[in-house]
Design brief:
23 helices; two-stranded antiparallel sheet; mainly alpha
């Protein structure tokens, strides 16, 4: 009975957002109130066994949720600011023109953004940064807003286990005593398998740019191989810090070289059907007499905010003295001796994005009026998102603090020999509730390890399944859906994104479970 009650808030979010098309604010608030009532009554939240009272528990959860929502907004705000500044300075048109020089096919150019750019930023920064940056640019490039968000969320997922220079897997290593390469190799093959599904979906979505030409299957295959070959090799022989970062860089270089070689070989052809857009569809960056004039910015200047962001992330993650200095400043607070949150302001992606915004503005010689307008517009967009984020995170924290999430995981562990099939679903549950694959791994790694040992199963493959499931959970986490939808003005329509993302996540989790069962 307790298991069914513990599942009610999750069921409520899915039903209200997917079936009834409620906004994230309405669905999240309803689920948050329901979760709090269940926690206080059925689960005795704040009573015996807790080191705080009911009122303290409610206040502590709300304070923690507000803090986490604020830290997410610190990422979304500057990312939106970069997007609006890029539009005002003409940098977006310059980027489109630059991509058109690589390939005149908008679908192939879009793959560079949806796949490699998202994977690179996720591998370097994580924390939802790639979706916040990529989704607005995809809209500007011609994607419909819902498609842009789904594409960015699906496109970055393959990099999540090794995001932010390996943070989710390193979190597991801090909890269990296994070799780093064993754990990185445990999760990498699962992601390579689910990467086939993710790549298929990305190709289908990218194909909507030029419907008459269809999805770019061949180029998607090149992109998939280009990323996963170095990703798997580094995970197997080096460790968890660099598979996503190096895989995305090497893959992008291989992809661009392949595109240029094919174009050069076809340069003498009058018609190149699978590269040139069909009649009536202009390539990315093309202009007509009625269009705006060609961009005055160089491609290098147009990429300035992104180049600075990647440079700052690499410096603060890979250079020990810089990393130690950035992490030396810690802001933290505590309530009632139990609830606590912290932030490393110099290490947080929000500051790096803000610095990238300023550096891009200086490099592009943007007027103060353009900078101010971009800042104001971004701020107006993120303020309404705060309520939705607080509601969703309140559900997650209430369930975690009251033991409801653990109740669901323990019930799943009762499957015995079928546990490997359910293991990735527990990882996804953690991310669904917390909004973070790292948090999911912190929450459930020891649980997965002990469950495997109790069932006389090899724990390492199941820890890999946990990490892979947590990564896939990123695609459907309401917390991330709300943040991503906010970047393209989809407030109130988050259910549309969730409806399209759920089947993708479901297929991936089933594949991970089947693979885990076969391995174990």
């Amino acid at each position: 009975m307790l298991t069914l009650l513990a599942a009610l808030p999750i069921v409520a979010i899915l039903v209200l957002m997917v079936a009834f098309k409620w906004s994230a604010v309405a669905a999240g608030t309803t689920a948050a109130v329901g979760a709090m009532i269940l926690a206080l009554t059925a689960f005795g939240f704040g009573g015996d066994g807790f080191d705080f009272g009911p009122v303290q528990g409610v206040v502590g959860v709300l304070a923690s949720a507000a803090w986490v929502a604020l830290t997410v907004m610190l990422i979304i705000g500057p990312a939106l600011g970069i997007h609006h500044l890029q539009q005002r300075t003409g940098a977006t048109r310059a980027l489109e023109a630059g991509l058109a020089r690589i390939t005149p096919d908008p679908r192939v150019a879009a793959l560079l953004i949806v796949w490699f750019f998202c994977l690179l930023i996720e591998g370097a920064a994580g924390f939802g940064t790639p979706v916040a940056l990529a989704a607005p640019f995809l809209v500007a490039a011609g994607f419909k807003p819902v498609t842009a968000v789904v594409a960015a969320m699906v496109g970055h997922a393959s990099a999540v286990p090794f995001a932010a220079v390996g943070t989710p897997t390193l979190a597991q290593l801090a909890i269990v005593d296994y070799a780093p390469r064993d754990l990185s190799w445990a999760v990498a093959p699962y992601m390579a398998l689910t990467g086939l599904v993710l790549a298929f979906v990305v190709a289908r979505l990218v194909g909507t740019l030029v419907p008459t030409s269809g999805p770019p299957w061949g180029w998607m295959a090149v992109a998939y191989v280009g990323f996963f070959v170095p990703n798997l090799l580094i995970a197997r022989f080096v460790g968890p810090e660099l598979p996503s970062l190096v895989g995305s860089i090497v893959g992008a270089v291989v992809f661009v070289v392949a595109v240029r070689l094919v174009l050069r070989r076809r340069a003498r052809s009058v018609v190149a059907p699978d590269v040139v857009a069909p009649d009536g569809v202009a390539p990315v960056g093309a202009t007509s007499a009625d269009d705006e004039p060609a961009p005055s910015l160089s491609f290098l200047a147009a990429t300035a905010p992104y180049l600075v962001l990647v440079l700052l992330v690499l410096l603060t993650r890979l250079v020990p003295p810089v990393r130690d200095a950035a992490r030396s400043v810690l802001w933290e607070w505590e309530l009632f001796g139990h609830f606590s949150e912290s932030i490393e302001p110099l290490y947080h992606p929000g500051l790096l994005l803000a610095l990238s915004f300023l550096a891009g503005a200086l490099w592009q010689r943007a007027a103060l009026a353009d900078m101010g307008a971009a800042f104001r517009r971004a701020t107006l967009q993120v303020v309404p998102v705060f309520a939705a984020l607080v509601a969703m995170v309140t559900v997650a924290f209430t369930m975690s603090e009251a033991g409801m999430t653990t109740q669901l995981a323990v019930a799943a562990a009762g499957a015995g020999a079928l546990w490997p099939v359910l293991s990735p679903f527990v990882g996804a549950l953690g991310t669904f509730m917390t909004g973070s694959a790292t948090a999911s791994n912190i929450l459930f790694t020891e649980f997965q390890d002990q469950t495997a040992l109790a069932a006389d199963l090899d724990p390492v493959p199941l820890l890999g399944a946990q990490g892979a499931g947590a990564a896939i959970g990123n695609i459907v986490c309401p917390h991330n859906v709300v943040a991503a939808a906010a970047t393209v003005g989809l407030g109130g329509r988050e259910g549309e994104v969730l409806t399209r993302a759920l089947p993708v996540a479901g297929v991936c989790l089933v594949l991970i479970g089947a693979m885990a069962w076969l391995i174990v």
